[in-house]
Specification:
single chain, mainly alpha, 2 strands, two-stranded antiparallel sheet, globular
Length: 174
Amino acid sequence: QRLFRGMTGLIAWIAVVAPALVLAPMHWSDLTENFTEQLLALDNLLVMALIFPLLKACHELGHGFACKARGGEVHDMGIMLMVLFPIPYVDASSSSAFVRKTDRMVVGAAGMLTELFIAALAFYAWLLLEPGLVRSLAYNTVVLASVSTLVFNANPLLRYDGYYMLSDLVGSAN
């Protein structure tokens, strides 16, 4: 739990994610070559359907561990079916009782931070691997854990993590 609290966790996160942010523009043409054709191919959509629940489980565990590390309680976690698709969830709502808004915001950001950490690791794997299934898994993980989490979870206009973080930042009841 200490990893999710304090400077040690922040330094470890930055040490993994920052180099990926520096390297990604250098490989941008390779990353985006035939982007829509790669992602929307039927076999690739099946691969993404397998990766997505695992990635979201890590996302939700990030919320749960961050909540527990700050003294909150996590009483409920599991898998719900949305349109017959498994979606993991963690009830970290006890964080709403935290006195410090920064603690509430860290719990809200923890899932996205976890996904960005995983995206960075997958990006390094993608760089090192030869073309094939494992490299395809790494590529899809990069896309799902970076683009989708930033477009949907960080978006304050949708009632996901970014919305609740912005509510805490401006002191608005959500």
